[in-house]
Amino acid sequence: MTEARPLGADEATFIAAARSGDASRFALITERYRRELRVHCYRMLANYEDAQDLTQETFLRAWNKRESFRGDAALRTWLYRIATNACLDFLDKREDRVPVPAELPDAGFEVLYLQPYPDRMLPEDPQESVVVRETIELAFVVAVQHLPPRQRAVFILRDVLGWPASKAADALGLTTASVTSALQRARVTMREQLPDRRLDWRRPAVHELSNDERGAVKSYIDAHQRNDLDALTSLLRDDLRFAMLPEAGTLTTTARDAVDGWVSGGLFQRGHDDWRGVATMVNHMPAAALYLRTSDAPEYRLFAIAALRVVDGKIAELTGFDATDKPWLDLPPTL
Question: Is the full-model pTM beyond 0.85?
């Protein structure tokens, strides 16, 4: 590592803990970086559970390599380097962690392993470059998955975290020229994947939901609770993009066809027509946690979570996730 800098308090404390072999002191020092490292791993992997595992792997590797840390770089930089390479090693071994062609014609590619990121697990006092809203939203995370792993790492380090080329090259064991070339190719792909989005990813962005977003979530929940299919249809844009993960089948559809499809699949029919909902947020996006009470159950059970992208007061993208057996979403299992 070539980042010349004076030895800071964190680095000095870390070195002392490393030399003493004091695992509890080591954990205390590194734990403060857990949330931002998990966000970093999530951008690399698009899967919250994988990100949890790789963050833990980062700390294990850091402990095993603790004697190699000399304070030439910031402790944070050193941990990000380890996390990035841990994610790359993971991706090298997992052939199922790539976008796959959609089953429906003209639907592009799907990221079936995508999971939502609960807002409560984001850093409490984040640097803007770590969790700026547009770089944690689902569309951005999906777009990043279309980059080959090393391009993905370069893009995140350079354009999201704002690292200079030399620092990113050092972290990845590449030349500065190869990092510059990889970034140029990555930017082309990101423009193709997100043609309607701005590409200045590190510019400050508003984290709070707009009135339109809050209103759309409330109306979406109300329509479910009333089984009001006309109201639900009116909330959806006619070029709605819909996915229900981890099932295949992302598609762009009309509002009426989307609702008709849900009904033909059994929703809003007897036994699947008693709903309750809770407004929440995932990926800095408005979301609705939906609970269903069936005829054989005395309570409403967590069924799914719907992340919404709202444009001009209407739902333009709806990404649904199976919410069962995911305690990290921090949603009550029953109502």
Answer: yes
